[in-house]
Amino acid sequence: MSSLRLALKRSMEDAGTDTPAMASKKNKGMLQILLPEALECKRNNDPAQIDTFGFVELASVFTPELAGSILSEGRAKLKAHDARPPREPYTRDKQRSSPINGKGKSVVEETPDIIAISNAMQATVSPELTKKIEESIRASETVVKSMSTVFGQVGREGRTSNYAGFELETPKLLITRPGSNPQIPHADDHCTSCLFGIVHLRDGQESTRMAPYSPINRPYPTGITVQCENPSCGRHEQLPDEALRRGVHLTDEQWTCGHCGGHHIPYDFEGDLLRSFGELLTETAVYMCSAYAGPKTQNAGCGLLSLPTVVHRGPGNPATSRDCRYVLFFTLRPIYCNVKKIKELDATKIHHRYNPDLQIHAPCLLYNQLNKVKQIYRGYGMESNFRALAGLDDGRAAENLREENRRLREKLNKILGEEKRHEAQRDMSRKT
């Protein structure tokens, strides 16, 4: 097996181990993975230092009453979910008769209020509680200062940011059952599109684990191409993360590349992604998140606010636990003033937003690097050679093999049926 195919195979096997499949959400027959003991607790209560530590602690951002109300709603939704009839078993020969939703999942596996994701259940939050959650978050001085620190930074040549506040997005309950494995190390986004928050809803829950954070030599790719506004330059380059934070692609702030007339920096999203998160592909990746973000255990209503580029992992929930782990997850998206008008496209529509389906983990990096190499070979007219050597057509071959096996089984059953019929006829002849 080629090294590339082996890397892909092992990566997906590891991902499947650390993030159990939908059918194993209740952990039947699943190997329990134990994380190495965390060596330290990283502490930061200063919003001005969020870019140094990658996160800031949130102390009592929710009142006990609000945390209790959110917890009660989560318990009720999980209870209703578990009371549904068991899902129909699946085999290769007999697919489920249940209808399929837009994500390709059987609707038996989910309800409008709660679905299975990664190593947890994800539940929606009622509009009434969402309103109270937003009020509490906006009242937090730590939250307000952290958002201003990250998105209100002064740019080159003293340019002020057009940052004007934030919007609460994607509030959701994450419920981790006892015996659930930890997440694989991952970042929530490839650039600083938002800040994400985690607030605990029960006392004594284990904190989120994080990897050491340093933005130095990490060119977090934005994937957004902009034009230098220096009339003598005008080159197109990928917008740097620090400029994305200030929203220069959305507002009337002028942007220049900073090296007009010098060396052109090529657009290399995949390369920047690897340079920023390449540690996820190393042998030590599983040990990266060796520290707690905050204290080892949290009180209800407390948690963290973090940059989305910080590599972290949920700790799972040990089988010895007597209750599920309940946390509220949310993102805060910056909004800007002086938004410029763009012909044929509203500026708000090109704002890069957090996407829960696009987390940065080892399989994601491998996929992006694979696509980059495919493009290189395609440019030389050698994509078919590359696909053959990399085994990228194995999926099609496997499907053909399954179809052939099915056909052979049908033929064998037909032959066996004929033999039984002839045997029965011979028996009848002997008796007569």
From TrEMBL:
The coiled-coil segments of this chain are 398-425
- Region entry Disordered: which residue ranges? 1-23, 75-107
Name the UniProt key words of this record, in alphabetical order: Coiled coil
Q: What top-level branch of life does the organism fall under?
A: Eukaryota
Compositional bias annotation for Basic and acidic residues: 75-96
The protein, known as = Uncharacterized protein
Organism annotation:
Thalassiosira oceanica (Marine diatom)
